[in-house]
Amino acid sequence: MDDFLAFTPVTLITGFLGSGKTTLLKRLLAHPALADCAVLINEFGEIGLDHQLVERVEGDMVLLQSGCLCCTVRGELSEALRDLLSKRERGEVAPFRRIVIESTGLADPFPVLSTLKADPVLRHHLKAGRVITTIDAVNGLGQLDVYEETVRQAAIADCLVITKTDLLTEDTVDPLMARLSAINPDGRFFFAAAPSLDADSLIAEGADLNLDRLQSPSGFYCEAPIPDGGEGHTRRISAFSITVEQRVDWTAFAIWLTMLINRHGAKVLRVKGILHLEGEENPVAVHGVQHLVHPPVHLERPVAEDRRSHLVFIVDGLDCALLKRSFEAFTLAKQSLNPVA
Ligand SMILES: Nc1nc2c(ncn2[C@@H]2O[C@H](COP(=O)(O)OP(=O)(O)OP(=O)(O)O)[C@@H](O)[C@H]2O)c(=O)[nH]1
Question: Last residue of some domain: 158, 184, 215?
C-alpha cells in the first residue's frame, strides 16, 4: 500500500463561532496541496449551511450535524472517517490524500484529536496533521475572556490564523496576539487578510501534531466523558433555526437584525443564514458574530433545490421564543422555529 494510504494526515480547522473557519477552508481548498482531500464539516444545529457555502458538495464532503464534534457526534466522527477510508479502499470516492475536518465553533479540539488517537482502526490509517485555529480579531479578546472553548482551541493550535484584521487598525491586534502567545507560545501566526495567505506553510507536512500536548501542563486535557446534548459547553448556549417558507423582505429583515444586534449583540454568538429575497433570483448569505454583522453576500447560484430561507442562531442566554416573536412581528413572515439544543 502507498505510504499516503497507510497514514492519511487529518488537518483540523477549529476556531470560535463565526471566526472564519469556512472562509479559510474555501480558500485552502483552492490550493493545489488540498486538491485531493476529503472534507468533513461539523455544524452545531439542525440545519447545516456551511457545506452549501463551500460549493464542493461531492461524495468526498461529509456533513456531521445535530451536535458538536467534541460531545454528541464523536461516535459519528469515527464512523464517518472509517466510512471514508473504506469508500476510498473500494474506489467509491476519489483517492484523497488528506482529510480536513472543520469543527463547530464550540468544539473542544482535544476530544476530537483524542478520538483519532484512541480509535483502533483510525489510528492505523490516519495521522494527526496540523491544527489550524481561526481567531476573530474583532471579537477574539472578549471571547477568550468568556468562552473556555476559545482558549482550548488556541492552546492546541499549530497555526493561529487571525481573521478580520482588515476590519481593525493595525495596532489593535497586538493585545490579542500577546494573549494568544501567552496561551500558546509555539503557535505560528498567520493573517487571513494577507493577500497571499501562506497556504503551503499552513498545511505543511512534517510538522505533525505533538499529541503530548493533549496532556498540556495548563490542565486543558479533558478525559471525562462530556454528557450528551453539548452540556460540556456553557449551559446557557442554545442553537435554533428559523425557516421561512416565502421570500423575505430584505428591508424589514435588516431593520430587525440591526435592532436585535444593537440590543443583544453580545448574546448573539452567531447568526447565519441563506435567505431567498423578494425580487432576487439567487439567495443571499447573511453572517453575524455578536455586534459584528458582515455585509450580505449575493450568491451566484442557487445553493440547493430548497427555496426556503434558513436562519441559524447560536445564542448565549437569549430566549428563543422571544426572538421568534420579534422576528414575526418585524418581518411578518410565516416561519417555524426549531429548537435543536
Ligand atoms: N472582513 C473579513 N471578514 C471575514 C474574514 N474571515 C471571515 N470573514 C467573514 O466572517 C463571517 C463568518 O465567516 P465563516 O467563515 O462563516 O465563519 P465560521 O467560523 O465558519 O462560522 P461558524 O461555522 O458558524 O462557526 C463571514 O461573513 C465571512 O465572510 C476576514 O478575514 N475579514
Answer: 215
Same domain assignment for residues 208 and 255: no
Grid cell locating 170 = 493595525
ipTM summary value: 0.99
Is 1 within a domain? Answer: no
- CATH number for position 247: 3.30.1220.10
Site to substitute for ligand 1 among 287, 290, 292, most atoms within 8 A of C-beta:
287
Question: Which amino acid, 193?
Answer: A
What does residue 46 show for φ and ψ, rounded to 5 degrees? -70, -35
Give the whole-angstrom CA distance, residue 165 versus residue 214. 29
Query: In this structure, which amino acid lies at residue 9?
Result: P
**Ligand 1 within 6 A of CB of 166:** yes
For residue 222, tell me if it sits in a domain. no
**Ligand 1 pocket member 272 (CB < 6 A):** yes
Determine contact, residues 43/107, Cβ cutoff 8 Å.
no
Full-prediction pTM beyond 0.90?
A: no
pLDDT in tens, the chain (341 residues): 444 446 888 899 999 999 999 999 988 888 887 778 888 887 665 555 665 655 543 445 666 655 555 555 566 788 888 888 998 899 888 888 888 899 888 888 887 777 777 888 888 898 888 899 999 999 999 999 999 889 999 998 999 999 999 998 767 899 999 999 999 998 999 999 887 777 778 876 544 555 555 444 333 332 323 333 344 555 578 888 888 888 899 999 999 999 999 999 999 999 999 999 998 889 999 999 999 999 999 988 776 677 889 898 989 999 888 888 888 887 765 444 555 44
Residues in CB range of 36: below 8 A, 6 or more apart: 94, 95, 96, 97, 98
Q: Are residues 287 and 143 located together in one domain of the fold?
A: no
- CB 192 near ligand 1, within 6 Å: yes
Report the C-alpha gap between 38 and 126 in whole angstroms.
13
Q: Which domain holds residue 327?
A: 237-339
Q: 89 CB contacts (<8 Å, ≥6 apart)? A: none
- For the domain that residue 94 is a member of, what is the CATH number? 3.40.50.300
